[in-house]
Amino acid sequence: PGRVLVVSVPDWGVTPFCVKGGRDPATVAREIDALNAMEREVCAGLKVRWLDITPGSRRAGGDPSLLADDGLHPS
């Protein structure tokens, strides 16, 4: 456990990919929050490090220069 790091799921609902795909950004955010909460709890129980990158992904979603040409992945 001391050598394991779990990274949260970034919120891809803030990206152009989400809207172009017909998804609701608020629904995506809620689902990601629920998944990340479950993963955080499991990590705590296993004494595994947890890194929450989701808030940063939400701030970066409005800046197209931080996304690849596909409108989804970080550049």
Could you please describe the fold and organization of this structure?
By secondary structure, the chain is mostly helical. It has 3 helices and 2 strands; from the N terminus they run βααβα. It has helices at 16-20, 25-46, 54-60, and strands at residues 5-7, 49-51. The protein has a two-stranded parallel sheet with strand order 1-2. It is elongated. The termini are far apart. The model has no long low-confidence stretch (mean pLDDT 93).
Assess the beta-strand content as a share of residues.
Answer: 5-15%
The quaternary organization reads as: single chain
Question: In terms of structural class, how would the helical and strand content be classed?
Answer: mainly alpha
Task: Please count the beta strands (DSSP E, at least 2 residues each).
Answer: 2
Q: SSE order, as H and E?
A: EHHEH
**General shape:** elongated
* Number of alpha- plus pi-helical segments: 3
Kindly report the spatial arrangement of strands forming the biggest sheet. 1-2
Provide the gyration radius in Å. Answer: 14 Å
Major sheet: 2 strands, parallel
Helix content range: 40-55%
Low-pLDDT regions: none
- Terminus-to-terminus distance: 30 Å
Mean pLDDT: 93
Topology:
Layout: E1 5-7, H1 16-20, H2 25-46, E2 49-51, H3 54-60
Parallel strand pairs: 1-2
